[in-house]
Amino acid sequence: MRVIVAHSGETVELECDADTRVETVATALAAATGVDVADQLVVFAGRRLESSETLGAHELPTAAEPPPPPPVDDDAATTPHPKPSHVFMYMKSLLRPEATAPPVPPMVAVAVEASPPPPPPPPPATTAAAADHPLDASPSPLARALPDYERDFRAHAQRASSFARAMRRRFEHCERLILETHAMALAVDAVAENVDAHFSYIARRQVRSIHWFPYDRVGVVNVIP
């Protein structure tokens, strides 16, 4: 079962079944995220998961789905999809009005690997057997320069490969940040829907509690002197 950590956007994968108790899930989340069990608020489909319940009481873990990737184009954004249900873990201390935003994790610096310097050109060889390259023993100076060009090309190719590996790691890091931001947006939307549902419930209760009749007696006035 996947649990979205609301304040960081991280996704925690848990091995559990329908008989797993919620308190066991909370303990596993505390070990994975560092958030104390007492500070956790685990929510699924707008309902809080109580520690005394089992996951099967909420049709979990089969009812939970992994967070979908964000849309990549306008067509994907406008295509209707069935709304998935996710399990969210909120920090109670961050939901208070006076709470401050959690610290932003530091950016991961990806350095370019230093490629070894190109080897120095070999000394002039007198015989073909002593040469490092077949052309090093060539009588033509132009032919003897070709191995140096090849060594320089190999050094530049190694340097370019180092840059390519660093760019690939940075791209993967950016992809992870995008997915975490999308997961946090899902958590915010879930909270907003929950608040709207509670306010609608309160408004309906308030309307039903008002009983007013236009012919209710409001007072008696004696108009006969």
UniProtKB/TrEMBL annotation:
One Pfam family this sequence matches: ubiquitin
Region described as Disordered: spans on this chain: 53-85, 113-138
Name of this chain's protein: Predicted protein
Lineage, top ranks: Eukaryota, Viridiplantae, Chlorophyta, Mamiellophyceae, Mamiellales
SUPFAM superfamilies: Ubiquitin-like
Species for this entry: Micromonas pusilla (strain CCMP1545) (Picoplanktonic green alga)
Residue stretches making up the Ubiquitin-like domain: 1-60
InterPro entries per UniProt: ATG11, Ubiquitin-like_dom, Ubiquitin-like_domsf
One MF term in the entry's GO annotations: protein kinase binding
GO BP term, example: ribophagy
GO cellular component: Atg1/ULK1 kinase complex; phagophore assembly site membrane
Coiled-coil portions: none
Start-end of Pro residues biased regions: 115-125
Low complexity: compositionally biased ranges: 126-138
